[in-house]
Design brief:
Blueprint (H helix, E strand, L loop, with lengths): L11 H25 L8 H16 L55
């Protein structure tokens, strides 16, 4: 039986550096979201999503995203990623939790595996 060896051109050290840089950008983005109060009561999900997109472009020159942006509030936080519930405004009684882990830009509390 012949063994095939992959000749991947991925530089794992460079990949790791880029992942760490992306993590740092996420932490900076989360801090700036909080500083600017983008997730305020009464803010519509679509408005927050657009503001976060624009902030990423302003801070880091981000113009492409590898997946859709998801900003949900209230009952919409129970919807899976694949759903697109109606846009809603956050009520005055809701608590905004931007980036609870400090490692990703999820705008709702999401448990992380392996932590």
């Amino acid at each position: 039986m012949m063994t095939t060896v992959s000749t991947s051109t991925v530089d794992e050290d460079a990949r790791a550096r880029e992942l760490l840089r992306a993590e740092q950008h996420a932490e900076e983005l989360c801090a700036e979201i909080a500083r600017r109060g983008l997730m305020a009561p009464g803010a519509w999900e679509s408005e927050v999503s657009t503001a976060v997109r624009d902030l990423g472009a302003e801070l880091f020159g981000t113009s492409r995203h590898w997946h859709k942006r998801v900003v949900h509030s209230g009952e919409n936080t129970l919807q899976p990623y694949t759903e697109n519930p109606p846009d809603r405004g956050a009520s005055r009684s809701e608590v905004a939790l931007p980036c609870p882990s400090g490692r990703h830009v999820d705008l709702a509390q999401v448990p992380r595996r392996g932590v």
